[in-house]
Amino acid sequence: MQQSASEASPNDHMRDGKLVTADGRPLKASLKTAERRRKIIAFAFVSPLLLFLIVSFIVPIGQMMWRSVDNPTIINTLPRTLEAMQDWDGQDVPDEPVFAALREDLAIAQENRRVGPLAVRLNYEISAARGAFTRTARTVADMEPPYKEQFLDAHRLWGNPDIYQIIKREGRPLTASYYVAATDRRYAADGSIEMRAEHQRIYMNLFGRTFAMSAVILVLTMLLGFPIAFWMAHLPMRYANLLMIMVLLPFWTSLLVRTTSWIVLLQQQGVINSSLVNLGIIDTGNRLSLMYNMTGTIIAMTHILLPFMVLPLYSVMKTIPPSYLRAARSLGANNWTAFWRVYVPQTLPGIGAGGVLVFIISIGYYITPALVGGQSGRMISNMIAYHMQTSLNWGLAAALGSMLLISVLILYWAYNKLVGADIKLG
Question: Is the pTM for the entire model greater than 0.85?
């Protein structure tokens, strides 16, 4: 009598001492094929998101970091001048061959309409360069050799050896000058890097102010958000949902509207100052200065970023069993000890997630400091926007943005190393 399928011997699925599938394929090869097919299907599902991240996130960041060192303008516009300056000692004004090469380069650049970008690029390094190049380029077609005296007569900058040192130094495809400027430094006459004068240092002070203000906003949102999240986690669900709606309500309102609302509240003739005057707390001549300074920026950004602290804290607190506190009190701990020693350590993932969100978002904030910050409440993001939109010094803006990005990554790495709390958002 033949054996049924369920009674088949294990040896019936063996071939040459190896396990095989029902169709006779080796089991190991079949498992590899199935695993490869599973990975291909999984990759097909996530590939649209991956493509979106590459196009909208990775590529722009890469372009920004490349622009901070890319330096094609001078080497492409003045190739003959750079070649003629190879033997120049860098001390006095160069000799006639350099001016002959410069005249030829400027004539070609004027014909190809490339004098403007060249003049703007060199004007970042030395003032009056734009006027010198644009004015001289209009007359180079009429120049006759020798050219040196005609260049010196065309603009005073041609008699300054600094312009030739800059051309020679920046006549390379890559440059560090944007990062030098972004760290409040400059190139000295001998080519070394030195700090700028105290009154010319802008960017490092802005970086320090940005990180300090972000830290203050982080502390304030934590102090305000922790009690709110704790209350929500221990309320009945009906009331907790109502409070959650109130926390999320700012997300349904335009950021611009929320910021301008704070302008109405904080200005010297606004609601807060007028209320304090009417209550007799302050007099009209001593109204509080809450707008167009660091105070206004901190108040407005704390309100805007508070939900980003409350939501991670609430998601963590909701998972902490209330029995833990009761158990701690039953073992002799008072209310404060039970809360501080038992409850708070379990909220660290939420504190870490909220802190990272608030700190990173506040570092890159732009609209609120621009509207309510004034001069003392500006952040580094406002200066990056200025160079992108007004001065059009995209290289310096890219250098500042890259430094900000690297600083955030370093802080995030240090946070994971020192704190080591898991990030939990929900």
Answer: no
